[in-house]
Amino acid sequence: AIVLPERLLSSQASPEHRPRPGVSASELGQYPPERIRNFSIIAHVDHGKSTLADRLLELTGTIQKGHGAQYLDKLQVEKERGITVKAQTATMFYKHTVENPESHGTDSSSYLLNLIDTPGHVDFSYEVSRSLAACQGALLVVDAAQGVQAQTIANFYLAFESNLSIIPVINKIDQPTADPDNVKAQLKRLFDIDPSEALLTSAKTGQGLSQVLPAVIERIPCPPGNCDSPVRMLLLDSYYDEYKGVICHVAIVDGAMRKGDKISSAATGRTYEVFDVGIMHPELTPTGVLYTGQVGYVITGMRSTKEARIGDTLHQAKTIVEPLPVI
């Protein structure tokens, strides 16, 4: 039996946001690029980025409430210091309802949202840049009390130079020293961001969070790509698992990758067989396939992470493709 999670907001307590026992290939195939959004959360250290990520996972039923702090921070140093060091990805399913002026009613569509979490420390700008390479938009989180800080500026320009749609989120508005109006003025002065575009939230109390995912869907474009082309994907990250071997995080740019396919590395020329493929929901969830615009993982039998070159283009074996821009 599926145990329903405790809801953070009663307005989100609907059947479409229940935790899922698994995701099938046919279900994943129901999400064309038009109904996919790939986004990151960028912020200065301790502005609430990881907490906001947790709340979004809870709102969509991807994880249960009460799991503990900062779900996506899995390294020991991340848990001890409260600073994200290694990028993580998580796939969420969200039903978005909009008013239809023609029918005087509402239209609902289910969306696949890929949250590609980024490190929050100035020393990890390279990790941030490669995470942003798989995104079309970013939530720029700013502490309502501290305002714009050094890493806020650095991350903004990383996202801006990547041509991402940027959604400003003023977080921690529940704090006694919060001054969201001053932060709005900073965003206008430093980044020329319209103050009316800023979302006011408190990831701690849940205030304002119902605005965030609708804004992601409405303001961030869908991923580009050709569904009918041979598969071509960007290798975002990798790590070694003693039971599964090297696990690669990838973003599918063109085509579809299926279990049993043969893929090659544009950097090394080596060819591999796809033994397992799926999404992070939020843990490894096998689906047997990944389609255009989707983000997930692939296991190919690589023996060392040295074979998985970050920024490499993986493509269908025995085909000639143009490598993706190097991060």
UniProtKB/TrEMBL annotation:
<keyword id="KW-0342">GTP-binding</keyword>
<protein>
    <recommendedName>
        <fullName>Tr-type G domain-containing protein</fullName>
    </recommendedName>
</protein>
<dbReference type="GO" id="GO:0005525">
    <property type="term" value="F:GTP binding"/>
</dbReference>
<dbReference type="InterPro" id="IPR000795">
    <property type="entry name" value="T_Tr_GTP-bd_dom"/>
</dbReference>
<keyword id="KW-0472">Membrane</keyword>
<feature type="region of interest" description="Disordered">
    <location>
        <begin position="1"/>
        <end position="29"/>
    </location>
</feature>
<keyword id="KW-0547">Nucleotide-binding</keyword>
<dbReference type="InterPro" id="IPR027417">
    <property type="entry name" value="P-loop_NTPase"/>
</dbReference>
<dbReference type="GO" id="GO:0097177">
    <property type="term" value="F:mitochondrial ribosome binding"/>
</dbReference>
<dbReference type="InterPro" id="IPR031157">
    <property type="entry name" value="G_TR_CS"/>
</dbReference>
<comment type="similarity">
    <text>Belongs to the TRAFAC class translation factor GTPase superfamily. Classic translation factor GTPase family. LepA subfamily.</text>
</comment>
<feature type="domain" description="Tr-type G">
    <location>
        <begin position="34"/>
        <end position="225"/>
    </location>
</feature>
<keyword id="KW-0378">Hydrolase</keyword>
<dbReference type="GO" id="GO:0005739">
    <property type="term" value="C:mitochondrion"/>
</dbReference>
<dbReference type="InterPro" id="IPR004161">
    <property type="entry name" value="EFTu-like_2"/>
</dbReference>
<dbReference type="Pfam" id="PF00009">
    <property type="entry name" value="GTP_EFTU"/>
</dbReference>
<dbReference type="InterPro" id="IPR005225">
    <property type="entry name" value="Small_GTP-bd"/>
</dbReference>
<dbReference type="Pfam" id="PF03144">
    <property type="entry name" value="GTP_EFTU_D2"/>
</dbReference>
<dbReference type="InterPro" id="IPR006297">
    <property type="entry name" value="EF-4"/>
</dbReference>
<dbReference type="GO" id="GO:0045727">
    <property type="term" value="P:positive regulation of translation"/>
</dbReference>
<dbReference type="GO" id="GO:0003924">
    <property type="term" value="F:GTPase activity"/>
</dbReference>
